[in-house]
Structure to design on (425 residues):
């Protein structure tokens, strides 16, 4: 079995994986980081979004072995110790979730979006969320939360 | 998914060698199609040969007349590339509306065209722009590359290395996206170079195709009005739960007109 070295949430990890092991399986089952969810398992819903080398990807559609040498960030890695990131806080305040299943993927996608574009328009936010499905909110409050977080982060 | 052995060669030669040594090998580019296909059990290769370690397949270069895109360039890279955006904004914007942001961060131009999904976006650009596909063995004109649904001129084990796009005078791509998958329900790419016009349609039929009647009309008069009354026979168009053949045929006309209007505004390359 291939042995891989990677960084997950700033911690160095060495693991043996099968070729077929998906990145999301390594994260959830291998490392116990269950904040990353498996929704559709067909790269449509976005519940499994993590960052690989700073870019959001669907971790159900990438092999774990392909993350060898990569820097991986999951939802567990975006919050400051004991608190919430400005985006997470905004989702809380704007009721940007109901059941919460899609939320980790939303957080990872929106965090990358705001890193790339600190001044997004609402249309850009909606285009940026095309790979993340939410069946509760109708997206309205998620978009409002991201717009509010953008403002908060810009200061 | 069944297990397989995994290799990540760092040169083209090593990749070709690994493929020919394999009993049942498959190349892995961005993985946005082959991995879901393997998860469904529709493919079960014994050896997966990952092309992500081959540096020479990543490059994007541009001259005044040709944009050259390495086969492993991701859609996100193409969408953001100044070397593409400046001379050929229609191609950059096409890359920026493939799938969704996460798919664009993994999916590659080489993987997309090798797969030749009938609803993929890139085949329309290659065919309308008269692109040339370079492989480890030869060069293939886009006109000769896309054969039929999921079939291309590639031989077993042949690897696409880059795609060269001649820079047109004006071009635009208009897509009516399937609201769920973001694949093209219909997509039309129009390109004008001098007096020559090419119109390529994806999503509507079993394979990307050109519309000769539209091209002839636009060569006489490059305006949306020139397309009035031109219809595409619907006998061979796709019909499914998303749209009937007639609806797709109608969309070809609508999107072609819009593409001509945007191409005139864009004035690509002028």
């Amino acid at each position: 079995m291939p042995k891989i070295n990677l960084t997950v949430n700033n911690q160095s990890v060495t693991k043996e994986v099968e070729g077929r092991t998906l990145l999301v399986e390594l994260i959830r089952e291998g490392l116990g980081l269950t904040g990353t969810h498996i929704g559709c398992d067909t790269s449509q819903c976005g519940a499994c979004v993590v960052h690989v080398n700073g870019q959001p990807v669907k971790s159900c559609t990438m092999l774990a072995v392909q993350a060898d040498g990569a820097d991986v960030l999951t939802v567990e890695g975006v919050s400051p110790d004991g608190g919430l990131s400005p985006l997470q806080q905004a989702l809380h305040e704007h009721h940007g979730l109901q059941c919460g299943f899609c939320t980790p993927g939303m957080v990872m996608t929106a965090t990358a979006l705001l890193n790339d574009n600190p001044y997004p328009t609402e249309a850009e936010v909606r285009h940026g969320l095309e790979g993340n499905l939410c069946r509760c909110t109708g997206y309205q409050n998620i978009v409002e939360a991201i717009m509010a977080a953008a403002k908060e982060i810009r200061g | 998914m069944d297990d397989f052995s995994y290799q990540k060669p760092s040169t083209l030669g090593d990749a070709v060698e690994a493929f020919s040594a394999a009993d049942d090998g498959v190349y892995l580019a961005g993985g946005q199609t082959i991995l879901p296909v393997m998860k469904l059990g529709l493919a079960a290769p014994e050896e997966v040969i990952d092309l992500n370690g081959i540096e020479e397949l990543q490059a994007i270069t541009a001259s005044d007349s040709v944009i050259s895109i390495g086969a492993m360039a991701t859609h996100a890279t193409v969408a953001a590339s100044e070397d593409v955006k400046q001379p050929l904004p229609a191609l950059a914007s096409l890359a920026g509306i493939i799938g969704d942001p996460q798919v664009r961060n993994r999916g590659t131009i080489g993987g997309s065209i090798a797969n030749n999904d009938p609803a993929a976006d890139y085949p329309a650009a290659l065919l309308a722009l008269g692109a040339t596909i370079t492989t480890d063995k030869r060069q293939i004109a886009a006109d000769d590359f896309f054969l039929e649904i999921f079939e291309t001129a590639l031989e077993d084990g042949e690897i696409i290395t880059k795609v060269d796009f001649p820079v047109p005078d004006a071009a635009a791509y208009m897509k009516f996206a399937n609201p769920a998958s973001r694949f093209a329900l219909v997509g039309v790419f129009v390109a004008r170079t001098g007096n020559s016009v090419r119109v390529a349609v994806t999503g509507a039929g079993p394979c990307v195709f050109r519309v000769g009647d539209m091209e002839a009309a636009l060569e006489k008069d490059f305006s949306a009005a020139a397309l009035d009354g031109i219809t595409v026979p619907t006998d061979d168009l796709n019909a499914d739960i998303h749209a009937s053949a007639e609806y797709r045929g109608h969309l070809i006309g609508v999107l072609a007109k819009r593409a001509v209007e945007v191409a005139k505004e864009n004035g690509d390359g002028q």
Q: What stands out?
A: Chain B is about 35% helix and 25% strand. The mean pLDDT of chain B is 96. Residues 171 and 191 of chain B are 4 Å apart (CA to CA).
